[in-house]
Amino acid sequence: MNNMLEIKNIYKTFNPGTINEKVALVDVSLTLKEGDFVTVIGGNGAGKSTMLNAVAGVWPIDTGSIVIGGTDVTGLPDYSRAYLIGRVFQDPMTGTAATMQIDENMALAARRGKRRGLGWGVTGKERDEYREKLKILELGLEDRLTAKVGLLSGGQRQALTLLMATLQKPRILLLDEHTAALDPKTAEKVLNATEKVVGRDHLTTMMITHNMKDAIQHGNRLIMMNEGRIVLDISGEEKKKLTVEDLLHKFSVATEEEFSNDQALLG
Amino acid sequence: MGGIAEYFASLNPANLLGSMPAGIAQGLIWGVMALGVYITFRLLDIADLSVDGTFTTGGAVTVMLILAGWNPWLAMLMAFIAGLAAGAVTGLLNTKLGIPAILAGILTQFGLYSINLAIMGMKANQAVSVDKFSLAITSRSVPIAILMGLVIAIAVIGILYWYFGTESGSAMRATGCNPTMSKAQGININNMKILGLALSNGIVAFAGGLMAQFQGFADINMGRGSIVIGLAAVIIGEVIGEAILGKHLNFAGRLAFVTFGGVIYYLVVVFVLWMKLNSNFLKLLTAVVVAVFLAVPYLRANARTSFKKAGRNAAAVGKEAR
Ligand SMILES: Nc1ncnc2c1ncn2[C@@H]1O[C@H](COP(=O)(O)OP(=O)(O)OP(=O)(O)O)[C@@H](O)[C@H]1O
Ligand SMILES: [Mg+2]
User: Quick one: pLDDT at residue A266?
Assistant: First the structure.
C-alpha cells in the first residue's frame, strides 16, 4: 500500500521574534498509509489544529516537508493544494457559504481544484446526482436542494460540509473537532455519516476529537499530541484493546502531569 | 405668512411633470451604475470607493473618443475597459499589497483625478454636442433616452445574471460570502476579488460614458458621490423589492430592483430641485437617507435584544418580587 500522507520533521512557530512567540509544532513526523483513519487527541493548545492546518496549507511551515498522495505540497498555498484535501471545520458556519443554495455549495465542492470557467455553476444533471448523494445523511436535505444553506441547523451544515469534502474523493480528509459544536445526538449522526463515507470510499482520514471514546471507537490508529509533539502513537490490535482508562493513564504518563487534572480537562 | 403662500404658488406642478421623464432617464443611468456597486458591496462585501473616480473616467474616455470621431458604442467599450483596469488596480492594492479595501479605493479614486484631467486634455470639462456627433443617448430626445436606458439596463442585468450563475461567478459569490470555505474549495480568492472589483468598475465607467453623452459633456466632478448614490440605489431597491416580492425576490429581481432604486433616487432629486430647495443640501439628504437605511438592520436586531432591554426586564421582575 502507498503512503498517502508524509509529514516529515515539520516545525512551526507563530509570531517569531515577538513577545507573542509561540512554538506550536516541534519536529512532527507522521506517515499515513492509504485508507488509514487516525484519531488525534491532546489537551488544549497541544498543536492538533496546527498540524491539520499545516497539512491544509493555511500558512507556510518553517521547516520540514509535507507530501500528500505523492505530491510535495510544502510550497503550495491552501487553494492550490485544495484538490487533494477534504476539510470539515469545528465551527459549522465555516465549511459552507450561507447565502448560497445547497446545490450551489455542492457544485463549488465538486469543482475543487478544477478550472472555473464560464460553464454553468451547477447543471440539472448534477442536481439529480446531489439529491441522491444527500440521502446518505438521512436528514431530508435531498428535498431542500435549492434552500439557502444559512437556513440549515449547525448539524445539517456540518453534515453537508462532510459530504462536500468527500464529493470528489480527497487524498486526505481532515476533520478538526467537527462534531464538537453539536448536541450529542446530532454529533452521533454526523459521526455515523463520517464512518459511512470514510468506509465507502476507503478515505485516508485524520480526525481531531476531545472525546476519548470516539477516539478509541473510530479509526485504526490513534495519536496523542502534547506541546507541539506527537507523544503517543497506537495502532492495530493495541488500539482495539484500548480503554478510556488506559488512555487517560497513558496521557498522564506522556505529559508527566497530574492524572486528576487531565481527567477533568479531557472528560 | 405671505411668503409661504407665494412660495407654494410659485411651484408649478406642470414643471414637476415636465422634468420627470428626464429624471427617469438619468435615474436609469444611475441604476446601471448601481449594478456595479452592487457587485462589490453586496456580493464581495467590499465598500469600493474607486467608483467616484471611475465614473468620471468613463465619461472622460467616452467624450474624448467621440470627439476624436469614434463610434459612441466603441467609445463606451473603451470606457468599460478603462474602468476594468482602474478596478483591477484597487484589487491589486488590496490583495497583493495588503492595503485595506476602503483605503485602496480611496487611493485609486484620488489618483484617477489627475488621470481623468489628463484624459480630458487638462481641462475640467469637455462638451460633446449631439448636433455634431452621433450619440448613443441624449437628453435632446428624452423618450428615446428612456427606452435606450431600459434596454441597456436589461442587457446588463441579463449579463450579470448569467455570469453569476457560471462557475467563475459562483466562485466570486462564495469568495464574498465565506473566504475560508472558498479557499478550502480551491478558489483563489485574491484573483476573485481583483476580477470582481474590475468588473464592478467597468460597469460604473460604462455608466459614466452614458451619463456624459446624456448631459452632453464630461466633467471632472461628475463622479463625485457615485458610491453614495450607488449605495442609495442598492438600498432603496432592495427595500422596495423585499416589500413587494418578499421571499420570492430572486437574484435577477434583486438586480432589477437595484436599477429601479436608481430611478427612485433620481426622482427624489428631481422633486427636491422642483421644491426649489437649495440643491447644495441634496448631498446631505442623500447621506442621511443612506445612513438611516444602513443602520436599520442593526437597530432592528438591537431592538430585539439589547442590554438596556435586559436591564429593564430584570428591574421589572425585581420590583414584582418585592
Ligand atoms: N494562527 C495562530 N497564530 C498564533 N498562534 C497560534 C495560531 N494558531 C495556533 N496558535 C497557538 O498554537 C498553539 C497550538 O494551537 P492549536 O490550535 O494547534 O491547539 P489544539 O491542539 O488544536 O487545541 P484545542 O484543543 O484547544 O483546539 C496554541 O498555543 C495556540 O494559541
Ligand atoms: Mg484545535
Answer: 55
Q: Does domain A3-266 have CATH number 3.40.50.300?
A: yes
Considering chain A, what is the average pLDDT of its residues?
93
- Nearest Cβ partner for A117 among B167, B182, B189: B167
**B83 is in which domain, residue-wise?**
17-303
Give the CA dihedral A91, A97, A98, A101, nearest 10 degrees: -130
Contact B170 A109 (CB under 8 A): no
Angle at Cα B253 formed by Cα B247 and Cα B257, nearest 5°? 105
| Distance between CA atoms of residues A116 and B160, nearest Å | 17
Nearest alpha carbon to residue B214 among B41, B62, B6 = B62
Please answer whether residues A112 and A168 qualify as being in contact, where contact means their C-beta atoms are separated by less than 8 angstroms: yes
Domain assignment present for residue B316? The answer is: no
Say which amino acid occupies B121: G
The whole-angstrom separation of Cα B186 and Cα A107 is 12
Number of domains in chain B: 1
- The pTM of the full predicted model, rounded to 2 decimals, is 0.92
B57 with B112: CB under 8 angstroms?
yes
Amino acid at the residue A238: E
What is the pLDDT averaged over residues B24-34? Answer: 97
CATH code of the domain covering residue B157: 1.10.3470
Question: Considering only CB atoms, which residues of chain A are within 8 Å of chain B?
Answer: 56, 78-80, 82-83, 85, 87, 89, 93-100, 104, 107-109, 111-114, 116-122, 164
